[in-house]
Amino acid sequence: MNIDKLKQKILSKISQEELEKKVKEKIEENSGLLGEESAVMLVAQELGIEITYGDEEEYDFTISDIADGQKNVEVTGKIIEISPAKDFNRKDGSTGKLASITIGDNTGITRLTLWNDKTDLIEGLKKGDVVKIENAFSRKWNDKVELNSGSELSIDKLKKYDESRYPILKENYKISELMPNLSGTINAEVVAAYPKKEFSRKDGTKGQLKSLILKDDTGSIRGTLWNELADFEVKKGDIAEVSGYVKQGYSGLEISVDNIGIVEESAKEEKPVEKMNISELADFDGEYVTISGNVANISGSREVQFSDRTAEVQDMYLNDGTGMVKIAFWGANRNILNDLKEGDYLNVSNCKLRTYTDNTGEKRADLTYNYMSDLKKDETASEKIVEKITAIGDILSGSSDNADVTVIGMVTNAYPVNEFSRSNGGTGKVRNIVLEDSTGSIRMALWDSDAEIEISEGDVVKLIHGYAKESGEYMDLSTGRFGRIEVNPEGISIKSPRNYIAELEDGISTEISGTVVDYRKQDVILSLCPNCRKRLNLVDNKYMCEVCGEVAPNELLVSNLTIDDGTGVINCRLYGNNVEKVTELSKNKLKEMNLDALSNVLGKDVLFYGTPSFRNDELEFAVKRVNFVDASKELEVLKQH
């Protein structure tokens, strides 16, 4: 391939300055493993320029193109590792042969396994040779796609090839040069050395591991020493030569260590890991930290969808008196939470810390419990937590600690979910509900995933460790960072107080039951000004507001029904979806039928929950929730009343 001719093709589309910039970016994106020629080729591909190679090898198929279950795979690659043939014994007593080579190009690395007579194909080959493999087949093994030798497998060493297509092989690598599935050696400083840990294998035997964080001037990587190698003495500050197999972990590349030696011992005396105050954590992004505190809250398990998998996570919140922090437990680590409860005092070590900026602009920290972490419960410091339920009336009066409230209330209104656009271009969701207990009612905002929880009017909702804040003239509840909600929690029920109409008192919310005996002869649609909320007048088919002039009306469903329970009668005011519920008709149908819809309600037995208040010297009932009478349940209520 003539790289100068390829550059000329590129320069017919972009300037020399743009080309140099793009080439530099490609080299930096690939951590310096790409040469200039390879970077130029990538730029050409992005611009849709055909690349010709003359007599060199074909480039139609790369390692990244190999998928599970393919047959007759044809691919070229540089030999990164070669394992000579070894004999093995089959179950029938016969002997077989096994060998493998690991090959790579600039798109990835894979291993080819050869069986029996096919092991002869690697004779004379060595690390660094570029080979063409034909008639292999692929399969998935340990979550990696590998090649196997088919009956027609062939391996040919190439004499002519484009060196820029293949990784540079080194005796020693910089950390930034490492790639998944690569076996290599690095020289790096040990910036963290964690204690040896034991684990149980599936067969019941015990294994052990030790984890290190290694760093050089190009980056950092986690290293794991397994079994006997975990006994190797290494400490923070040592300069180590580490050889092993590189793989993709949950939080970046990891190296499974095959061999380790100390090049230079640390002159510093290693100090034990110090506990940190939670209030200090935001200054240590990316570090592994140790903290202690009481369990303030344990969330339910939830699923998180990634691009390639679904994972389950459960959160625990720890409070040490200086602040509170969330610790995420992923996958099997969630089982650790089974034996914990609120109030337990824990020592938690070696958790990975990440920081982020919340929607108020404040920098915050979260922790992740991983296989290097450890958790111990201190029974002597644990305390029994007596759950404190905050009355809604105390929140409204300002006599509660609104930064941490646990509230139980019945849902009197549940509004639809609304979507909105975020400043970053994403989409959010919000839903409002109204909770009420015997002391008052309050609005609660449910955001994003909480907005999708099934909640209906009449449900009991428990907000645990939420917070309350002023929103204009009102107080609102929210789950915040640490709160969670439970719907109809076991063992908790709220019964609406029941009163006869003759017993009603001004301002005291209650439930009444009766029969609809009359209705006010007014339109079910009330047309209001969208600006000042005044009632509109229809003049020459135009809606006119005495303050704002001609406007497009806001239409509100409204009706006044009179009910009789045998002790008295009372006028009941209903708005919005409560009008739809009592008539069992949609808004559009109500607009069409108008007063005829209300005549159909006459004689219905209803349950109204709401608040009585004086209006024009008469007691009226503002309805918050509508239900119909269940005869069997009503008998039980009447017996108790």
What's the gist of this structure?
One of its GO terms (molecular function) is helicase activity. The chain has eight helices and 34 strands. With 641 residues, the protein is mainly beta.
Can you describe this structure?
This is Nucleic acid binding OB-fold tRNA/helicase-type. The chain has 641 residues and is mainly beta. Helix content is 11%, strand content 46%. The strands form six sheets. The chain has a five-stranded mixed beta barrel. A five-stranded mixed barrel has the order 6-8-9-11-10. A hairpin with a 2-residue loop joins β33 and β34. It is elongated, with a radius of gyration of 36 Å. The protein starts with a helix and ends with a helix. About 1% of the residues have low confidence.
Radius of gyration: 36 Å
Query: Looking at this structure, what is the CATH superfamily of the largest domain?
Result: Nucleic acid-binding proteins
User: Poorly predicted ranges (pLDDT <50, ≥5 residues)?
Assistant: 54-58
Strand order of the largest sheet: 1-2-3-5-4
Query: Which class do the helix and strand fractions yield?
Result: mainly beta
User: Under CATH, the topology of the largest domain is which?
Assistant: OB fold (Dihydrolipoamide Acetyltransferase, E2P)
The portion of residues forming beta strands comes to over 45%
Total number of strands: 34
Helix content: 10-25%
The main pleated sheet reads as: 5 strands, mixed, barrel
- CATH C-level name of the largest domain: Mainly Beta
How many structural domains? 6
Any idea what the CATH architecture of the largest domain is? Answer: Beta Barrel
Keywords: ATP-binding, DNA-binding, Helicase, Hydrolase, Nucleotide-binding
InterPro entries: NA-bd_OB-fold, NA-bd_OB_tRNA, SOSS-B
Protein name: Nucleic acid binding OB-fold tRNA/helicase-type
Domain OB: 73-147, 202-261
